[in-house]
Amino acid sequence: MSPLHRCPPGPKLAALALAGTGLMLVEAPAIMLAALALTLAGFRLAGFGRAQIRAQVAPLLWMLAILFPVQGWLAGWSLAALVVLRILTLILLAALVTLTTRTEDLIATLERLLAPLAPLGVNPAKVGLALALALRFLPVIRDEALRVREAQAARGLGTHPLALILPLILRVLKTADEVAEAIEARSGHHDGAAISR
């Protein structure tokens, strides 16, 4: 087990929040490229090879392939490179946290962090589950994109990026509905437990 696997969820979530905030403030592509290199080094430290790294970003490459020229044409190539590098780095950072942390540990940590907000009407169980699932949702979108692409290729429909968008959106919306139902069920369970006490 790597040092990142052994690290408690709290520090990892704090580091992710700080890194995400910092990356949004970076305006130099060279600095963003260095941040991406550090993130890739984190994957290596956690024991993940090129295959695992490629699996995190491969399904999103078609989106970035569309975004880069559009952004470059509208706002300049330097900004386009910055945006693409920022997206890649943020996705990989979130994936690194979820790959090295159990979902149960993420939820428990988020619930503890949100507990002081309960008197203000915040439901720690519901919000904690929602945040944990949001982190987990990136790999879900990746997997759905792979399934759509494989299904269309099997039917001989081609794998053009634009042909993937509508089916992918429909699948993601369906998954989002299931996630919402899970959150409501968990919230109801916690509310019922609180009433019984």
TrEMBL record:
The chain crosses the membrane at residues 13-43, 55-74, 80-99. GO terms for cellular component: plasma membrane. It is found in: Membrane. It is a multi-pass membrane protein. InterPro entries: ABC/ECF_trnsptr_transmembrane (IPR003339). The keyword ATP-binding does not apply. Keywords: Membrane, Plasmid, Transmembrane, Transmembrane helix. The keyword Manganese does not apply. Its main location: membrane. Belongs to the CbiQ family. This is Cobalt ABC transporter, permease protein CbiQ-4. It comes from Rhodobacter capsulatus (strain ATCC BAA-309 / NBRC 16581 / SB1003). The gene is cbiQ4.
